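Hi R.,

Here's the chain you asked about this morning:
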Amino acid sequence: MADRKLVDGTWAQELDQPVNLVIKTKCPSKWKIVDMETGKAYIGTDKNKKFQYWEPVDNERLKNIESELKELNMQLSKHIKFIDDTYEGLKNPINAARRWLGR
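And here is the predicted structure, written out as tokens:
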């Protein structure tokens, strides 16, 4: 058996015989698979023909998703910093109240 190197640098063991991976769903477009060896992504389709169950995610759509993810990550980081900054000023009063209440 051979090993295959994945895009994240880890390895996956190749089997001697192929296996079927089957998904039964009423909403195929909610499913996404990623080939972790090549990095290519595919979205499920409602085409019920062999070799048409999955279609590649186009680069433009992928760029939009990555851009949205980056924006959400920036917003989350700002929010976390705001919470950290706000909590920093409350540490001493909270600790004083704990000491006063004996907790």
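One quick note: The beta strands are 3-5, 11-13, 32-34, 41-44, 54-56.

Cheers,
M.
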